[in-house]
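Lab notes, practical 5.
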Amino acid sequence: MSWENEIVMRDVTNAGLVVSDRIGRDVAAQFDLEEALEASRYASHPYSTHPREWPPLVEVVDTRELPPVLVERYNAAGGEGTALCGIFPEIRRAWASVDNSLFLWRFDKWDGQCPEYSVEEQAICAVGLAKAKPGIFVEAIQYLLVLATPVELILVGVCCSGHGDGADPYAEVSLQHLPEYTIPSDGVTMTCITCTDRGHIFLAGRDGHIYELQYTTGSGWHKRCRKVCLTTGLGGIISKWVLPNVFKFGAVDPIVEMVVDNERHILYARTEEMKIQVFVLGPNGDGPLKKVAEERNLINQRDLHYGTRQSAGTRGPSRSSKTSIVCISPLSTLESKWLHLVAVLSDGRRMYLSTAQSSGNNGAVGGLGGFNTNRLKPSCLKVVTTRPSPPLGVGGGLSFGALSLAGRSQSEDLSLKIESAYYSAGTIVLSDLSPSTISSLLIVNKDSSTQASSPASLGTGARSSRALQESVSSLPIEGRMLFVADVLPLPDTAATVHSLYSQLEFCGFDNSGESCEKLSGKLWARGDLPTQHILPRRRIVVFSTMGMMEVVFNRPIDILRRLLESNSPRSILEDFFNRFGAGEAAAMCLMLSARIVNSENPVSNVVAEKAAEAFEDPRLVGIPQLEGSGALSNTRTAADGFSMGQVVQEAEPVFSGAHEGLCLCSSRLLLPLWELPVMVTKGGVGSSNAVPEDRIVVCRLSIEAMQVLEDKIRSLEKFLRSRRNQRRGLYGCVAGLGDLTGSILIGTGSDLGAGDRSMVRNLFGSYSLKVDSNEGGISSKRQRLPYSSAELAAMEVRAMECIRQLLLRCGEALFLLQLLSQHNVTRLVQGFDVNMKQALLQLTFHQLVCSEESDRLATRLISSLMEYYTGPDGRGTVDDISGRLRDGCPSYYKESDYKFYIAVECLERAASTSDPEEKESLAREAFNCLSKVPESADLQTVCKRFEDLRFYEAVVRLPLQKAQTLDPAGDAFNEQIDAGIREHALAQRERCYEIITSALHALKGESPSQREFGSPIRPVAQSVLDHASRKRYICQIVQLGVQSSDRVFHEYLFRTLIEIGLENELLEYGGPDLVPFLQSAGREPIQEVWAVSAVTSAGSPLGHSGVHIASNQAKYFELLARYYVMKRQHVLAAHVLLRLAERRSSDAGDVPTIEQRRQYLSNAVLQAKSASDSDGLVGSSSKGAAFDNGLLDLLEGKLAVLQFQIKIKEELEATASRLEDASSSDASESSVPNDGGNRSAADANFARHLREKAKELSLDLKSITQLYNEYAVPFELWEICLEMLYFASYSGDADSSIVRETWARLIDQALSQGGIAEACSVLKRVGSHIYPGDVSVLPLDTLCLHLEKAALERLASGVEPVGDEDVPRALLAACKGAVEPVLNTYDQLLSSGAILPSPNLKLRLLRSVLVVLREWAMSAFAQRMGTSTTGASLILGGTFSLEKTTAINLGVRDKITSAANRYMTEVRRLALPQNQTEAVYRGFRELEESLLSPFSFDRF
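Output from the prediction step:
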C-alpha cells in the first residue's frame, strides 16, 4: 500500500465520531410535518418565491401532443361520447378512453405506438391498474387492467417488458384478453377504481357503495371472478343512521374519488357532497373492509385551526362561491406519523387530517417521539391544521399577504379557483382558473434553502427553524389540467434507493407491498438536500386537454450547476452561498467536483473545476477561525446549542464551510449504512435474533446498491486526494508552513488530546496552545491563548484528511462486502459458531469501518472466502482472488495476508502430493512464507496442517515467532511492570504455546486437536504412526522447544510434558532451564550449592525439614530427584528425596503415606551410599567422603526413627482393632446390660482415641522424643520404648532406673498377657535386638530375678507349669547364646543372701544354673564339632557321657567343673529336705564327673 493510501485507524476512528455526530444532527433536524405546520402558524412568511436571477425552480422540459389516433377517434365522436383519461406511472403509460375503446401510449417519449383495446358496445366508465396477485396468472402478466362499463367488469392482463439490452424496461406493453375474468356489473355504474399494492381491486359505484373485485384461479363450482359489495348489510345501515347524513333519506351521494394508504392500510373515499369516509383494510392490508369514520363538515372545522392568524389581506370573506374539496391524498409515514391525509380545497388551502384520537408528538425534539404511532388503529377523522393558500401573482415582485394585493381593485375576486390538484411527497400541483389570470399551474414544494443544515437549537429560534417554508412557482398551461402523475425513478435506481433506505426507521418504509419505484419516490418528501446525491431530478407529467407536458424540478445542485455553466456574476454565486449556507453550498460544490450527483447528463470538466475552485474559495466558504472572531457567518456554539449565563472558558475553533460541506456530504453518503448492521438473516421460521439453522445470512444491502455507493465514496476520496496532492486550498497553505507537528501532510500526527473541551478540539487538540489548567484553583474565566491562523488551517486540514481516510476505509469495506455477497455469505459463515454468527449479525458498518476489533470478523470472512478458492474443490488459485482483495480493500487484506494464503496454497498442494520430497519442499516453502508474517498467520489451523504433513519444525517455530511478535518488549518476563500488563502478555504468549502443546497431545494420543471454524485449511486424514515414530517426533518437538530462548515457553513446555506423562523425554532433553523450573515449581528452591555448603559447614543443609509441599508440587521434586540420579548427582538426589519424605501438607487428603515416606528415605539412603561409594562431589575426595558419611548417618537415623513410628502406628491400630472386636462381642454376650454397655463404651472410646493417634502418626514425621513421650509411654508400648532407648544410647541416669523400670513393666505386661512363656518370649525378642550393648540397657540381674521369682510363684500356686529350663534358656537367647554373662548373673544373685532369702528361690536359681552349665558344655562341644548347640545335643544324645568328653575344650571343661563343684556345695547348704535337693545335686555331680573323666584328657 502506497503512503498516500495508508490508513491510520486512529484517524479513521476520530473521523467516525465526527460523522456520527453529523448524522445524529441531521436525523434530529428531520421534523414531523405536523410540528413544521404548527411552527409555521407563527411565521410571517409561510411561502417564498424563487430569485429571478437564478435558473427556474421548475421548468417544462417537453410537451407532446396527444396520439393522432386518439384525437381522430375523439373528433369522430363529435365530442359527445364518454371520454376519460389518466396516467399509469407503474408502466410509463398514459391512457384515454373514447366510448368503448381504450388507448395506451408512452407519456415520457413518443415511440409511435398507441395500442387500442375495445370492449363491447358499452362505453367505458372507469379504468384502473392493479398489481397481479402471484400464483394466479402466468408470470408475464404483471398487472391487470380493470375496465368498468355499465354492464360488465373486465380484467385484462398487462405484460410489460424491455428491450434485449435492458436499457428501457418499459419498451413493450401488450394486453392479454382474459375471457374468464369478465363478470356483469349488476346494473351498477362504477365511478372510480383504486387498487392496493397487494393486488386488491376496489370499485366505487354510483349507488354510494364500495365493491371489491375478487379473482382466483378458480376450481369446481367456484367462479374465477366475482364482485363483492363491502359497504352493505347491517353495519352499513347503522353507520348511515349515526352519521350526519341521516336526513338525506332518498339522496344518493356517489363516491367520486378513492385513495389508498398502503403503509397504514387505510382506504379513503370522497363523495360528491364532500364527505370523506375512512375504511381500514386490516392490520396487514388483507382483512375485510371496515368503515371507522365518516365526516362531511370538515371544511367548517378547518377555520377553528387557523382563525385570527391570517393577515389583513386574507381572501376568506371575499369568496363568492362555496369552497369544495378538489382532491385528497394520503401522507406517507416518512412525512408524518400523526398526520394521515391531506385535502386540497378549491380556494387553494390544504387541510391536514388525522385518524387518531390524540395528535402531536408531545414536543419531542426532532419529531422522533412518534415513530411507532403509525401502528395505532384508525378511529376517527379530524382536521389537525390548515395551511393557507399560496399567494396570487407569483413572480413580478409579488409575494404574499398585503403585498400581493398591490395594484388590484377591492371589488375583484382575490380567491384562487382551483379546478384540480395533485399532491405527492410534499409537492402540490394546482390548476388555477382564476378569472384575473390565465390558466396556470401553481407548483408548491418545500423550500430547500430553509432546509439548509443548521444545528437544532433549543432557544428562541427553535420554532422558526422548524416552520414549514414552501416555494411557489407558476407555469402557464394551455387547456385544462386533467391528470398529474410522478415520473417514478427507473427500476435500477429505485432498487438501489430502496436497498439503501428501506431499513432506516425514520424513513417509515415498512412491508406495505409497494414497489421499489413508489417507495423510492417517497424519499422526495425529505427535500432535495439530503437526497440529491442519490435520487434523480423529480419529474411530473401533466395531462391536459391540449396534450402532455413534462415538468422537471431543479434541485439546488442543478441550480448551482447552471450558475457555474453560465458564468454567472460572482454576486449571484455569493447570494447562493448566503441563501443555502456555506456548508450546504460547499457540499454541493464537492458533489459536482467529485461527480457524485445523480444527474441525467455527466458533469463537465469545466463545471467540476469551477465547483472545486468555489469549494476552496475562502471568500465563499470562509476560513477556519476562533468562534466569535471575524465575520464568519456561523452561529453555531461550541456545544451546538444556546447557552445563557455560562462563563465562556475559551474560544473554540470553527472550521470553514469547506470542512462543514465535507462532513455533510460524507454523512449523507454514509447515512443508509452507518449505524445499521451489514448482515441480516432471511427465510426460516425463527427470530432474526436467534440465528436458527434454517435462516440464511446475507448482506443487508444489494450488490448494486453497494457498488453505487462505493463508486460515489471513492470518487469523493479521489477528489480530496487529488486536491491534497496538488496542494490546493488549505492544503497548499499548510504544506507551505514548514514542519507543523501532527500534520498528516507532513508528520505522523500526535496523540489526540483529552479533557473537557469540545469534540472538535478533542479530535484535533494536538495543535492547541494550552498554557494553563482549570485545576489547582486557577480561575475558570481565564482566557487561553488564541490559535494562530496557521494552526487553525493545519487543524482543518488534519480534520479533512481524517475524513478522507474514513472515506477510503468505507470504500474498501463496501468492496469487501460486495465480494462476500458474490460468493454466498451463508456458505462462507457455515463454519462459524453461534457466538461468531451473532457478532456478525450485530456488526454495524460503523464498527466494521472504525473498530479494530471488527477486523477479526473481516479476517474470518476473508479466510472463508480464501477457502472457497484454495480448498480441495477450489475454484482457482490464491492469486486469482488476492489481486482483487489487495486492489479493492488493502486495509482489510494486507501484504502479510497475501503471504499467509500463499502458504496455505502450498500446504494444500503438499497435502495432495504423494512425493515425499515434493511434500517436504512445499511445506518448507510455506514455512518460509509464514516466517515472514508470523503476526498474521492463523496458527491454530496452519500448524494443524503442518502436523498432518509431519513438519514439526514449523509447528514449534511459528508459534514462538508469533509470541515474540505479540510481546516484542518482553513484558511477560518483566516482573517490574504492572501485573495486569504482564498477565496480558503472558496470556497472549500462552495462546501461541497451546498450539505446540496440542501437537504433543495429538502425538501422545490423548486429545485430537480441533479445527477452528472459518479456517481456509481443510482437515486431512492423518497417517497412523507407530510408537517409534511418535517418540521421534515428540523428541523433535521437545528439542526444538528447548533450543528457543523463550524461558516462559520452556516452563509451559515442561508443565505440559509432565501433565501428559512424557517425563522421560523431559528429563532427557530438558536443557539447562529444567532444574530451575523444577525447583521453582516446588515453591521452595533447592539450590545445588547445598553440597558445597555442606562440605564447608558442620551443620546439615536440611534446615527446611517439614516444609509444606502439595502433591502437585511433589511430582516436580520427584522428577528433580530422578534428574539428579540420571546425572549421577547422588547427594543432591538424596537431599530432594529427604525433602519429599519430610514434606507436610495442609490438606489431609494430600498427605503421603508412611510407607511412601519410608520409600523416599530408603531411596535417599541408597543415593547417599552411592555418593559415598563414588565420591560423588567434585573436589576434595576426603571432604566429600566425610560429608557423604555424615549425610548417610543422618538419613539412616531418620529411617530408623521412621521404623519406630511405623511400629507404633501398627501397634496402636492393632490394639484398637482388638478393643473394637472385644467391645462388640462383650456388648452382645453380656448378661448384665448396664455393666456390659459401660465397658463396651469405654473400650470404644479408647479405640477411637487410638485411631486418632495412629492418624496423627500418618500425617508427618515425628522425632524420637515425640514418639517416646507422646505415644510409646502413654500407650505402654514398653518393647518399643526399650528399642528406642537402645537406639538413642540412653544414659540419662546412673543406676539405669528408667531402663530397669521399663523392663519390669514389659515383663509384667508379658506375664499378665501370657505368663512365663510370653515373658520369656519377649525377653528373647527384645534382648537379642539390644545385645551386646550397655549393661544398663539389658539388666540381666533384674530380669533374671524377676523371672525366677515369677516362675517360682506361678509353679507353687499352680497357675502355670514352668519348666526348669524356660528362664535360663530365655536369658541365653537374649544374650545371643553367650553363657558367661548369664552364669555371672546367677553367680551374683546366689552370692547375695539379701536378694535370695528364700531357700526355694535359691534352689530354683541353682536348677537354672545347672541348665546354663549344660548349655555351656553343649555349646563348647558344638563349636568343637562345627555344629550348632542343638546339633551337639543330638550328637551327645542329650547327656554328657564319659566317652564324649574328649570333644570339649579343656579350658572350658575346667571352668564348667569348677562351677559344678561349687554349686554342689551350695545345694548342700540349702535348708531344705534332701528329697527336694537331691536331683539338683546329682545333676551337678554327673556334669562334673563327665567332664573330669580321664578319657577326655587323653584325647586332648
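Observations recorded by the TA: The first helix runs from residue 9 to 28. The chain has a mean pLDDT of 77.
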